[in-house]
Amino acid sequence: MRVFHISHTDLDGYSCQLLTSEVFPNIVFYNANYGLEVKLSIEKVLNDIQEFKNEEILILISDLNLTPQEALDLDKNIASLNSDGFNIILQLLDHHITGKKSAEAFSWYFLDDKRSATRIVYDYLIEKYSANITHYEKLVNAVNAVDIWLEHEKKNFEFGKVLMSMIIKVREVNSILFASLNRDFKLHLLKKAIDYLDLENGNIKLDNDVHFLKKEFLKLDENDDTIDNLSAKYLVKSLEDIKEDLTITYKGQKGLLTYCLGSISIPANTFLKANSDYDFFLDVNKKGNISLRAAGKLDVSLLASKLGNGGGHVNASGGRIEDFKESIDYNLVKIFIQEKLDILD
């Protein structure tokens, strides 16, 4: 069976994916916040499953509620695909009471507001698939306690608070450009946290050690460094691994396009120095704000003025593209930006 799992972007959502990663070998993950991201993630899943018509498919959604219209649209899409020869099982596991109407309308929509999504997924995997995941039970209890705010479970609640903070503060690996690496980072930390569950004052010890657990993941070799430097090196290495897929051109000059990377000065300059065949570095965020960097080969202030009615310095400029539309798909962003660059004077 091939599994496509959409989950929320918080501790509860990623903990659900930690559990399913242990059970299903053929699994693809997606993460979404509420609103547009949920809709776009569902659209991406429906597109991604097209090549697996001859396989059994499970579409699992956890820790996210759907509006009645979103649920109806999804139900119709799955029914249409199944009537066309697909073999798709749809299952939503959630605990947000705002999904009550949708849960009442569709059998595949399971809602229980007395358990966290992680607890629901944990129980579901054991009951439905006889999953061997009981070694995660104490972690599940901590996530459950903090997510549905069970303060009376003091030990689990306090440990869960540290877990929540730990996941929220994973900013070293961009969650949009490197969604898989960002998720791997978070799951790495959650797995490491298990070692602290039985320690006296384990929540405090974990809180003290999060910095070092992060550095352990980010190190590319045995050499230690500040976490900022390790993050920058890790980021540049990650960019270099996929630079061909991120390459754009402007009047014959070569650039690297990132999406929602933010704070690009250090990584952009580091990348351009290490990759002399690239002339500029462009980052765009969800609102269409652009940041441009160069290393003497292109006047990015002129490019910023043409592309985003902006400006700045020869090697560092910014602006805003007014007709930019938010997307969770980098490839769509790249197509849009390249088309803009192609028509500039």
Uncertain segments: none
* Global Rg: 22 Å
The strand line-up of the biggest sheet is 6-7-8-9-11-10
H/E topology pattern: EHEHEHEHEHHHHHHEEHEEHEEH
Query: Based on CA inertia axes, which overall geometry fits?
Result: globular
How many E strands? 11
Q: What is the arithmetic mean of pLDDT?
A: 95
How much beta, percentage-wise? 15-25%
Number of helices: 13
Distance between the termini: 51 Å
Helix-strand category:
alpha/beta
User: Helical proportion?
Assistant: 40-55%
Largest β sheet strand count, sense and barrel closure: 6 strands, mixed
Verbal overview:
This protein has a six-stranded mixed beta sheet with strand order 6-7-8-9-11-10. Strands 2-1-3-4-5 form a five-stranded parallel beta sheet, with helices on both faces. Helix 1 packs across helix 8, helix 5 packs antiparallel against helix 6 (137-147) and helix 6 crosses helix 7. The protein contains 13 helices and eleven strands. It has helices at residues 11-23, 36-48, 68-83, 100-105, 117-129, 137-147, 154-168, 179-193, 202-218, 227-241, 265-274, 300-308, 330-342, and strands spanning 2-7, 27-31, 56-62, 87-94, 109-111, 247-250, 253-259, 280-284, 289-294, 311-312, 316-320. The model has no long low-confidence stretch (mean pLDDT 95). The protein is of the alpha/beta class and 345 residues long.
